[in-house]
């Protein structure tokens, strides 16, 4: 079984290709069923968003190329698009690369807008669709759950999930450093321009409820006020409005500043120390920079806001590195579980074999020792079970570690070394009574576990499945 | 458990809670522009229960000290500072249930730790044996003043953060960690409410003290009390905070200048504690 991913995204394919392969929610059950019905495909999950189309699958096909071909054929058949149209835009990943990719996708690291939050919900929805269509089983379920957990960690432990950061966002962030609750803050807009409306929209979507618009052309002020759900006033009355406003966005086309220190001072006296946040996005500037020296006035012009945006972009890059580290940890968790599953059939067989031996020995003993009480038999049975568990404990543990890639042993073993490894036996020299190869002749040499004269070089360099090695170990006196 | 173990445990819990509040500042994701709530780290989530546990354990430590010595906690420097630390922690916990102020919490709890450590350092100082300290009015006098001091300290913390945040905003340097400081309005509001509760308590404390002086309950003549610089500092403190409250309530003043009053206020309050008193010697 292997985990594979075939997909394309905004990095690899233009919108014309992406839209031809995209899969709407109502079509997903059919697409999932079609993918899972392909020969050799055991599990399938489809992640289809406006920026990506990815098919994750678990297959028991002989190799990755066969799996890729099956999924490519599914995409072509289901979307009725010739493979030649999209094949060059596809990317293919398998096993650890596929897992790491999904972790990065769920964290928003592979998104068009770095760290965008929507993708995590889309990953969750993809899994739910596959669960409903019954095309997902243990492996993809575990992978997607791990990806969702990783995505959540990235959002809670890094600042990556802040979404796009514009001048409007910077204004909202700064307003939040001044005002406890934007729902109680009022905004005065001077000049009904596009930039001021955009900035005001950010504030309104962040909770601001009171918006007043002043513009030299009153009709434009009325139109903007209607769009923002506020009220319009005549331009010459704005100083009066500034007494109660908390945030002022200024974006007029005035050639000289409309707000100076001396014009603002009487207004501030009436405000009695209430903080005033001035956002000057006009060029040339509407507000004299000296105004910032006044108590309780915080003036930010377009350059100041852009500096905040730039600082945010810088910190986002650092956050991305932290997010990558989290994704790597979460991917490793999944891969450890995934690889450990490969050892499961061997472990089950080993347990069954040992249990069979136990039952056989117990039956033999029962026939020989007939005068023991049931209580004594229970003790014997408990002891045998305990013995079985103790003998199998170390090999099972090592099998799991080896499968999970946690084993320190990297070389392939000859069987005696493997026996030492799986039973956790210490390395030791042969006992003194052990016959030396030269003293005992060729036959003895053949019986010695590490006989140097055997063909095929030293035991450690020989492939473990070599017939020679099997013969050698089957004759090993340690087995008797 | 002994007083020493309980006090040490309370100290450790306050410190852990202070670290937790600090971690909340450092580890939580900044507020998203979309308004989605930021989530804190595991350490930050533990800060509040650790604080509440610390307050309970500290209360037990003070109680155990009283039971062991058969004295009011105010009979020793250790007891007085211990109660002061406890009231700071309690005052912050009360505020914390209304509005989350991790930055203030980290600092306030460190101050509580400092006060407690100072008290422990003076634990071997002689315990006042005067029967005066068994007088309920004296206990009320000291307790009311200590709680008011704790609230003034909290107001000072908020004012200090206000001034810092104000300067950062003016200099356009609200970056990195500073973006996680509380908003100016919240700091102003918490400082105001702290003083609004503290001033009546200080008034009660001073009024009870005066009643004891002029009611003849104390051995020294009233003139000695009135000329004691310690008592004069108390009156200056009272007027200073009264001025702050009147400025806020009557004239509607707000803003950074008002915060300076709170900063000066704590300096005067500390002077009040440290100025040697000729009339508050009970040993």
Total beta strands of chain A: 10
Q: How do the helices and strands follow one another from N- to C-terminus of chain A? A: EHHEEHHEHHHHEHEHEHEHEEHHHHHH
**Form type of chain B:** flat
The total count of strands of chain B amounts to 0
Distance between the termini of chain A: 38 Å
Rounded radius of gyration of chain A (Å): 36 Å
How many individual helices of chain B?
9
Structure description:
The complex is a heterodimer of chains A (480) and B (283). By secondary structure, chain A is an alpha/beta fold. Helix content of chain A is 54%, strand content 12%. Chain A contains 18 helices and ten strands. Chain A has helices at 15-21, 28-36, 64-79, 83-86, 95-107, 118-132, 138-157, 167-178, 194-205, 218-228, 238-241, 261-271, 302-340, 344-368, 374-404, 415-423, 437-447, 467-474; strands at residues 2-9, 41-48, 52-59, 91-94, 186-190, 210-215, 231-234, 247-250, 276-280, 297-301. In chain A, a hairpin with a 3-residue loop joins strand 2 (41-48) and strand 3 (52-59). Chain A is elongated and about 110 Å long. Chain B is mostly helical and 283 residues long. Chain B has two domains: 1-127; 130-283, no CATH class. Chain B is built from nine helices and no strands. At the A-B interface, helix 7, helix 8 and helix 13 of A face helix 5, helix 6 and helix 9 of B.
List keywords for this structure.
heterodimer; A: 480 residues; alpha/beta; six-stranded parallel beta sheet; four-stranded antiparallel beta sheet; 18 helices; 10 strands; elongated; disordered C terminus; B: 283 residues; 2 domains; 9 helices
